[in-house]
Amino acid sequence: MAKASSGTVNPHSRTGVRIVVAGDQGTGKSSLIITAAADNFPVNVPPVLPPTRLPEDLYPDRVPITIIDTSSRPEDSDKVAEELQRADTVVLTYACDRPETLENLSIFGFRIYAN
């Protein structure tokens, strides 16, 4: 935590924002992250990206933003739940042409509040 000028800890100051992107397979999680970071739409996207840091000069307040991609594989559900718990912000994705992906978003909401 950052310290205020009086030497006390200011619990409202931020040293960074952690955004976790979650959703079903094929809903564009990785594409969304790459597009935000590189300002262009990718042709080939890996299944899961490593943590992606946006340029600090992207926003006027210069707060560092790290975006965390998540896996859609069932065997990774514990890791996804852990990432959701650590997030400052969660972005949930779904595919407009696949209504079941919208219905499945409640699963991610449950994981956020389960602990």
Gist?
This protein is an alpha/beta fold and 115 residues long. It is built from four helices and four strands; from the N terminus they run E-H-E-E-H-E-H-H.
Structure description:
- This protein is about 30% helix and about 15% strand.
- It has about 120 residues and is of the alpha/beta class.
- Strands 2-3-1-4 form a 4-stranded mixed β-sheet, with helices on both faces.
- Helix 2 packs across helix 4 (about 105-115).
- The longest helix has 10 residues, at about 30-40.
- The protein is globular, with a radius of gyration of 16 Å.
Stretches with pLDDT under 50, minimum 5 residues: 1-10
Strand content: 15-25%
Measure the end-to-end span: 24 Å
Helix residue percentage: 25-40%
**What is the structural class?**
alpha/beta
Strand order of the largest sheet: 2-3-1-4
Q: Report the count of strand segments.
A: 4
Q: Strand-and-helix sequence, N→C?
A: EHEEHEHH
- Overall mean pLDDT stands at 84
Write the SSE topology.
Blueprint: E1 17-23, H1 29-38, E2 52-54, E3 65-69, H2 77-86, E4 89-93, H3 99-103, H4 105-113
Parallel strand pairs: 1-3, 1-4
Antiparallel strand pairs: 2-3
Helix pairs in contact: 2-4
What attributes does this structure have?
30% helix; globular; four-stranded mixed beta sheet; 115 residues; 17% strand; alpha/beta; 4 strands
